[in-house]
# Entry
Amino acid sequence: MSLARLRLYQLVSPALPVGAFSYAEGLEVLVQGGRLKDAAAVRAWLEAELERGVLAIEAAALPRLMALLEARDWWGVADLDGWLLAQREAPEMRAQQRQMGRSLLQLLADLGWSLPDPCPRLGWPAAFAAAAGGLELEPGDVVEAYLYGWTANQLSAAVRLVPLGPTAAQCLQLQLGPQIVQRAEDLMVADPRDRWQGGVGAGLAQLGQGALYSRLFRS
# Structure
């Protein structure tokens, strides 16, 4: 077992205090609208997002962000970071990206982990890339971990919303494993700016979060 692998586990741990638990990224709207009623519907939704959602574009950007950060190309980092943020239609999602990115960079500074100096303010994908670079992680592992961490967080929200039992959620996590591995391999060599995203349903759900009469999550 390598130290780098343990650091990667820490980066995707649900105990990482960046506030990920407070976001459902549109799931709450879909559940209240009767779109996600059981494990099969949740699995279909997650598979679609892994294939065609903004998530894939963000994951594809991670190796490039890591390279730009290592080269201290701050203009390139800011340009790609801003472009990724613009892919999120809902203001709640953009706020989520900024908050989680800020929290992660602050956490890493508090822990004394190595970061580029000076490190600009970054959204979540770019902050994740900065953390991965500072922890000397391999880009391929980082892309895979990013997809895995997002899936795990969505399943955690689904347990509280659908309702979906924790055992069913763990079964879904296992079932999605091969797709996550394959997507990571594909996205590792992809240019994020050449990719398209078809997450129209996700975007509409995220835009509807602010209009919910009652809600558990912030997005």
In short: The CA atoms of residues 108 and 152 lie 22 Å apart. The longest helix spans residues 139-161. The domain at 24-205 is CATH 1.10.4190.10 (Urease accessory protein UreF). The chain has a mean pLDDT of 90.
